[in-house]
Structure to design on (755 residues):
């Protein structure tokens, strides 16, 4: 509905009402209301004045009619010009019915034409303000169509399907970037990014310097998204800063039910309830849980009753009535306030879903559940929430689902394509993808678990790779998936070890950063034999810096009791799993990268432990020694092949262990070569730093050996193809060979190699 009230000094009100984004042809006038302080002493004066009022009223009608026609004309012109500039109109289509065909961005991954007429008109969230309800629904369909096109990349857009209508409603009600919107998980922000002018970059996802460099702070993202759990804390901080500075902008924090497994969410909610700052928290409950028992738990039902109650709870009348009741019961005293509060909590708990009173106990006013795919309900609730000037923290419980299908056949087919998704290397079916390090790790661990029944697995992090699902089915009750609760996973593993079991704590390398305090105090300081398996170590391609495991070598190898090792191939991986099983006096860290491996022999499995702290010599030369750690050993071999063609004889060694270091191997390399190059897919301060510490204290640097480290650069590597990321980091075989040529004084050859 659109309304344009017009007033005159006498209180005559004219309303222009309609259902379109422009003013309609329906004209209404209210009764004439004169100011109460006007007095009339003579009937003749009254009649004369009424004639003048009628004359003025006729003038107002004429003016309003002209104004209406003018606004309608301007609206039609603006609409035509916007549609004409946004759409690619084909002459033959216009002649046969005027259909507008809009193609995805020309720079995108496909030339396939799709119909996204409303989305093509959106440059920024302000363009949503004048859209009607029907157009907003069409916009949601267009976004799903666009996601279906982008799903042809290696990026999964499945989580974003649950937030399409929610994102449209948020941007229609709130005024970004004046109002601040903080998201919890990057995978759910793609509709938000489509509506905030980043459609072109989304279509380039996976290319060098793509969207992930914009996923941090920018105009429409006041706080960068990462692994989750941060949006309420950051939103509360922005709300308190707003209050201190006397501003009036609104803060919205969107969280997922996956992140509610982490303790920081409840810490933030508790503090928000205590501070009582105005904050809107939207819980996107997408019926997804990593714990199977949670999947079997009752879900919040959406029906006409719940929809009506949610609208009632969010209404200004109900909120004001509730506040007045609080004041009255406090004045009455005699325990009346506490008695009324218990009745209110009991009544709201009866009509609300299971667990809704928890948010009330933390100090947040609960509204819900709301159908997250019903734009009309979302707009109603969010409009009411946004209209309250002093409301304190509010939690809006929105129920969504990834598998939501739209009515339109073409868009529905596109949405179905999105649901099927573009399989990444780690998530696709085993038969349709190359074998990965995770496949070989699971194979090795299953073999070990059949021999040793004390082996258990604790899995933490966001989502689960396909190989670990097979491991979960195999181990049954000996496999524990705790979701995004890394701190609990570490200490839980320590407790399992104290109980006589042999826990393997499987966590993506970047997610372990959140549990580092537990690693230090609950495991390493007590020398508890927990076997950490860090997946996705190093660069991770299209997932960018948010999921890159760049720092684990550094922060794990600095711990006094920790063993840190990394395999160079699948055979070494199997041997290291066997080695970890046998270590029972201290913790172990085993890291391996994401992605496919060059299989040496898929059927070969060696159950042969490696001596702790013992590396190996792969190729022996005389000019330069390359000492690789983990997956970088293969790039050292590629550099060897390049340099061999230039007549340079080099040595390649596999360190295997960062800690304890193979001092005998390092000492031999330094004594037999003038130059030593260490190569690792980790940050500064990792494997190379340990080598430098040893050779300096051992006096090997004084003997004349020249040492050069090759590590990840001191900056974040954003999303790109894996080979592009390695090139940006200077870790390819050519980069290693160029470093060797520079040490030999062949600078020109090094430059030619990099061209």
């Amino acid at each position: 509905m659109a309304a344009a009230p017009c007033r005159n000094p006498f209180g005559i009100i004219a309303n222009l009402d309609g259902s379109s984004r422009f003013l309609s042809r329906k004209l209404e006038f209210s009764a004439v209301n004169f100011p109460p302080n006007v007095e009339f002493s003579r009937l003749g004066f009254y009649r004369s004045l009424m004639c003048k009022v009628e004359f003025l009223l006729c003038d107002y009608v004429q003016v309003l009619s002209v104004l209406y026609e003018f606004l309608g004309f301007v609206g039609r012109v603006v609409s035509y010009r916007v549609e004409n500039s946004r759409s690619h109109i084909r002459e033959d289509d216009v002649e046969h019915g005027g259909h507008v065909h809009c193609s995805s961005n020309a720079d995108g991954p496909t030339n396939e034409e799709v119909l996204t007429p409303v989305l093509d008109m959106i440059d920024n969230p302000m363009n949503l303000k004048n859209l009607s309800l029907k157009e907003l629904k069409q916009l949601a369909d267009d976004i799903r169509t666009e996601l279906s096109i982008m799903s042809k990349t290696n990026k999964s857009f499945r989580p974003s399907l649950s937030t399409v209508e929610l994102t449209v409603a948020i941007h229609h009600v709130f005024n970004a970037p004046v109002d601040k919107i903080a998201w919890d998980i990057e995978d759910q922000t793609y509709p938000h990014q489509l509506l905030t002018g980043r459609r072109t970059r989304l279509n380039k996802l996976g290319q060098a310097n793509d969207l992930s460099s914009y996923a941090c702070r920018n105009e429409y993202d006041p706080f960068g998204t990462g692994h989750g759990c941060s949006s309420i804390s950051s939103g509360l901080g922005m709300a308190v800063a707003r209050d201190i500075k006397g501003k009036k902008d609104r803060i919205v924090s969107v969280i997922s039910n996956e992140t509610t497994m982490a303790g920081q969410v409840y810490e933030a909610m508790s503090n928000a309830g205590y501070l009582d700052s105005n904050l809107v928290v939207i819980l996107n409950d997408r019926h997804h849980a990593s714990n199977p028992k949670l999947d079997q738990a009752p879900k919040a039902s959406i029906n006409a009753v719940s929809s009506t109650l949610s609208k009632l709870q969010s209404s200004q009348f109900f909120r004001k009535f509730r506040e007045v009741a609080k004041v009255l019961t406090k004045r009455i005293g005699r325990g009346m306030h506490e008695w009324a509060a218990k009745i209110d909590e009991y009544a709201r708990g009866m009509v609300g879903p299971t667990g809704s009173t928890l948010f009330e106990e933390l100090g947040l006013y609960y509204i819900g559940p709301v159908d997250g795919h019903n734009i009309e309900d979302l707009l109603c609730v969010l409009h009411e929430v946004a209209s309250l000037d002093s409301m304190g923290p509010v939690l809006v419980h929105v129920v969504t689902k990834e598998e939501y299908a739209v009515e339109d056949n073409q868009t529905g087919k596109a949405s179905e394509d999105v649901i099927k998704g573009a399989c990444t290397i780690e998530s696709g079916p085993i038969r349709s993808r190359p074998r990965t390090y995770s496949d070989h790790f699971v194979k090795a661990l299953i073999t070990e678990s059949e021999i040793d029944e004390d082996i258990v697995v604790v899995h933490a992090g966001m989502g689960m790779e396909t190989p670990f699902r097979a491991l979960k089915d195999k181990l049954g009750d000996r496999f524990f998936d705790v979701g995004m609760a890394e701190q609990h996973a570490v200490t839980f593993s320590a407790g399992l070890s104290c109980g006589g079991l042999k826990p393997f704590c499987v966590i993506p390398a970047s997610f372990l950063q959140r549990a580092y305090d537990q690693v230090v105090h609950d495991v390493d300081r007590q020398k508890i034999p927990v076997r950490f398996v860090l997946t996705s170590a190093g660069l991770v391609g299209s997932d960018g810096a948010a999921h890159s495991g760049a720092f684990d070598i550094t922060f794990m190898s600095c711990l006094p009791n920790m063993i840190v090792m990394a395999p160079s191939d699948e055979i070494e991986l199997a041997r290291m799993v066997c080695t970890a099983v046998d270590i029972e006096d201290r913790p172990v860290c085993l890291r391996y990268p994401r992605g496919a491996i060059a299989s040496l022999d898929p059927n070969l499995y060696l159950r042969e432990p490696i001596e702790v702290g013992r590396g190996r010599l792969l190729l022996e030369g005389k000019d330069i020694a390359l000492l690789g750690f983990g997956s970088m050993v293969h790039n050292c071999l590629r550099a060897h092949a390049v340099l061999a063609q230039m007549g340079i004889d080099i040595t390649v060694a596999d360190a295997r262990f960062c800690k304890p270091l193979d001092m005998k191997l390092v000492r031999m390399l330094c004594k037999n070569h003038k130059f030593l190059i260490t190569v690792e897919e980790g940050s500064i301060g990792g494997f190379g730093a340990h080598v430098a510490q040893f050779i300096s204290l051992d006096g090997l640097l004084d003997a004349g050996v020249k040492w050069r480290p090759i590590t990840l650069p001191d900056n974040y590597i954003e999303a790109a193809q894996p080979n592009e990321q390695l090139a940006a980091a200077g870790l390819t075989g050519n980069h290693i060979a160029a470093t060797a040529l520079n040490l030999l004084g062949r600078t020109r050859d090094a430059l030619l190699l990099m061209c």
The two ends are 62 Å apart (CA to CA). The chain has 27 helices and 21 strands. Residues 255 and 721 are 29 Å apart (CA to CA).
